[in-house]
Design a protein that fits this description.
By secondary structure, the protein is α+β, with helices and mostly antiparallel strands. The protein contains six helices and two strands.
Amino acid sequence: MNSKEPSTATCPIERSLAFLGDAWTMLILRDANSGLTRFDQFRKSLGIAPTMLTKRLATLTEERLLERRMYSERPPREEYVLTEAGRDYLPVLFMIGAWGRKHRGGGKLVQFLDAETGAEIRPVAIDVVTGAEIGTRPIQLVIPE
């Protein structure tokens, strides 16, 4: 990354990767989008060390992708609930998964199914302005002055 401070980077990809660029963070968001909310659920699903999970959850909360909510007063217990920004990250995860299925596939892979229809979800990124599939046309980067 070129910027010393990610929040001043002109590239939105660079800014996002500053805190979303590690595997644990993306897998926590994957699990949160599939309904997990509690520390122990994340720990069990991911096999992640408690200290690492604590750090990642704190960052996701600080960056407002997750929100901490009390679910028990005695004993005090909190859960992590997706915010709008956290829910908006799901298509990104699906696009990463589609890339992985195509280029890192083989063997048995998890399927992502539409809960209402049972059909496999096969994501594609479309530019809303042109209607073209992203990746099928050349792009140009314009750096602000």
